[in-house]
Amino acid sequence: MEKTLNRIHPVSDPEETYFLQVSWEKDLGAGFGITLSDGQCAWTGKVSEAEISREAADMEMNREKYVEELKKALIAGEESADKYNFAIS
């Protein structure tokens, strides 16, 4: 299993720091687990391969391109920090 952990500062509350962990088996497109923590509480979830395909279709985006964008937003870290914004609600 592969995992990444990134520090994020959401645009909804830029003074706060959150930690985003993403874990996957084969590749991100096959589904992944996600954990978000503010250092005191943690929230976890899973995203299935079917959900990824459905979201790509809803966005009228090629599935492979959508998975590449997910990789950039969720696991690329600092190199993509200025391209993607996170909002916590």
UniProtKB/TrEMBL annotation:
Coiled-coil intervals: 49-76
Cell compartments where the protein resides: Nucleus
Domain XRCC4 N-terminal positions: 17-88
Entry GO terms, CC: DNA ligase IV complex; DNA-dependent protein kinase-DNA ligase 4 complex
Keywords: Coiled coil, DNA damage, DNA repair, Nucleus
Record flagged with keyword Cell division: no
PANTHER family registered for this protein in UniProt: DNA REPAIR PROTEIN XRCC4
Keyword DNA damage: yes
Main location: nucleus
Entry protein name: XRCC4 protein
Superkingdom assignment: Eukaryota
GO-annotated biological processes: double-strand break repair via nonhomologous end joining; immunoglobulin V(D)J recombination; response to X-ray
Entry's Gene Ontology molecular function annotations: DNA binding
